[in-house]
């Protein structure tokens, strides 16, 4: 079954970086280089659409609240 999220809980990588108050380059590296979101991608909480990363608030909290 697909997960349902409110639009307020879905970010692009750019808006997620602003939300977290971290540099966009840090988030981009965490997604592409350091595979910090590997489990969240498998769980369907993060997805790349074309060149744009779509990230849920839940994924951000899992990765950055540790």
What does this structure look like?
- The chain has about 70 residues and is of the alpha+beta class.
- It is about 45% helix and about 20% strand.
- It is built from four helices and three strands.
- The longest helix has 9 residues, at about 25-30.
How many helices? The count is 4
Strands ordered across the widest β-sheet: 1-3-2
Residue share in β-strands? 15-25%
Strand runs, count: 3
Low-confidence stretches: none
Coarse morphology: globular
Oligomer: single chain
Alpha-beta content class: alpha+beta
What Rg is obtained from the alpha carbons, in whole angstroms? 11 Å
- Measured between the Cα atoms of the first and last residue, the distance is 28 Å
Run of helices and strands: EHHHEEH
Q: What integer is the average pLDDT?
A: 95
The share of residues in helices is: 40-55%
Summarize this structure as a short list of keywords or feature phrases.
66 residues, alpha+beta, 3-stranded antiparallel β-sheet
Short characterization:
The chain is an alpha+beta fold and 66 residues long.
List the helices and strands and how they pair.
Blueprint: E1 10-12, H1 13-20, H2 24-32, H3 38-42, E2 46-49, E3 52-56, H4 57-64
Antiparallel strand pairs: 1-3, 2-3
């Amino acid at each position: 079954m697909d997960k349902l999220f409110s639009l307020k809980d879905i970010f692009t990588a750019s808006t997620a970086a602003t939300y977290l108050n971290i540099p966009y380059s840090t988030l981009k590296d965490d997604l592409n280089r350091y595979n910090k979101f590997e489990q969240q991608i498998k769980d369907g909480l993060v997805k790349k659409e074309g060149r744009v990363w779509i990230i849920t608030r839940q994924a951000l909290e899992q990765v950055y609240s540790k």
